[in-house]
Design brief:
Length: 260
Amino acid sequence: MLIDLDKLFRLDGRSAIVTGAAQGMGEAIARYLAGMGARVAVADINGEGARAVAGAIVAEGGQARSWTIDMASEAAILALVEEVHDAFGRIDILVNNAGVQNRNYLEDTTGDFWDSVLDVNLRGPAIAIREVVKRMRADRIDGRIVNIASNSAFHATTPSLYAYSTSKAGVAGLTRAAAMEVVKDGIRVNAICPGNTATPGQMTSTGPGFSPETIARFAPPIGRQGRPDDIAAAVLFATSDASAYMTGQTIVVDGGWLTC
């Protein structure tokens, strides 16, 4: 009997939160999940952008609502999770995509600078996982959590990413630790690690140490930059029944860059 692959990837009846979803990878992820039937909370610090993405999804026949969220604020994260749960009745999927890549060299990295990166990239996702897991456990939902890390978690790609690379390595560790703790509840936690991905306001385009020659170093063996759809497709896999036997994993989607 042939396998119904469409059914394997469908997300009908499920609700998802995607942070950092006003553009780029987050927008693509929101569109992919909505395209497979999920109700999507499009969350971003850019409220106007989040509303535009949610509106476009609805106009195309999907289900979405927007929220304005600062992932550096614990109170804002708590409010987001509560409001989405009230609006959708359940939370099945969390995609921690929001992130910052503030750049500074080692000798210039102050405590405040560390906080500006870690609060959004690591502390925020940890708080979001904690709050979403509470709802998943209470509702007895076999939840799926996906953290967006980076291939920078495994390789020091360039100077000035001292705090960013550290934060993303932390996300990989957070993924494994959370997966081990919640697996007994039927909740799966995995991470997607993008490489250089072309997005609006691309993180890898400006900042200390980012000359044209440095940027060229990011060209992977596959011969092109990543696209938001490349990352969204990996997230769809990790949130669907196709990945039912996988948890605590970090999937690198970087065109083979780490093989160099």
